[in-house]
Design a protein that fits this description.
- By secondary structure, this protein is of the alpha/beta class.
- The chain has a single domain, classed as Response regulator (Rossmann fold, 3-Layer(aba) Sandwich), CATH 3.40.50.
- Helices cover 29% and strands 27% of the residues.
- A 5-stranded parallel sheet has the order 3-2-4-5-6, with helices on both faces.
- The longest helix is centred in the middle third of the chain and has 11 residues.
- It is globular and about 35 Å long.
- 31% of the residues are buried.
Length: 143
C-alpha cells in the first residue's frame, strides 16, 4: 500500500530524540533499540512489553516518540494506551505498529491522534519514517 502524508511531524530542538518502545516481542524491541540508536540521532529511554505501563513511563521518562504496538502483554491495548498518553501529554508523537492486517486499527489510530501507523511486515519503512529526517511527515497506509 502507498503511504499518505497527513501532517507535519517535527520535534523541537534537541540533540537526541528520546524514544519509548512498547512491544510484547523482546526480539522486536531489541531490533528497534538498535535502529533507534545515538548514531541515528535517537536515545531509547524505555523498552517495555506491556501498554499498561506506557503512560507511567512516558510521564517519568518524557519521550519525544513512542513506538506503540497495538497488541501487547496485559489487558490494555496499545491504542488505548496511546490515547491516554496523547490526552495527558499531547506533545508526544506516537507511531502505532501492528503485525496483524486488521483494517480497524488504522482508522482508530488516526482517530486518537497517532502520528503514523506502520505494519511490522514492512520493517524497511521505519528508517523512512524517522522524524530525524527533516522531510518526515506523518504516514498511514492506504488512503
Amino acid at each position: 500500500m502507498e503511504n499518505v502524508f497527513n501532517s507535519s511531524f517535527l520535534i523541537p530542538n534537541s540533540s537526541l530524540i528520546k524514544v519509548l518502545i512498547v512491544d510484547d516481542h523482546e526480539s522486536l524491541r531489541n531490533s528497534f533499540e538498535m535502529e533507534f540508536c545515538e548514531a541515528n540521532g535517537f536515545t531509547v529511554v524505555g523498552s517495555i512489553a506491556g501498554a499498561v505501563f506506557a503512560e507511567a513511563v512516558c510521564k517519568a521518562k518524557k519521550p519525544d516518540i513512542v513506538i506503540m504496538d497495538v497488541c501487547t502483554e496485559g489487558e490494555v491495548s496499545g491504542l488505548s494506551a496511546a490515547e491516554a498518553i496523547l490526552k495527558n501529554q499531547p506533545r508526544v508523537k506516537i507511531i502505532v505498529t501492528s503485525g496483524f492486517d486488521e483494517i480497524t486499527y488504522i482508522p482508530r489510530a488516526k482517530e486518537i491522534g497517532a502520528h503514523a501507523f506502520v505494519y511490522k511486515r514492512v520493517p524497511w519503512l521505519f528508517p523512512r519514517c524517522s522524524p530525524a529526517r527533516p522531510e518526515w511527515r506523518a504516514r498511514f497506509p492506504g488512503g
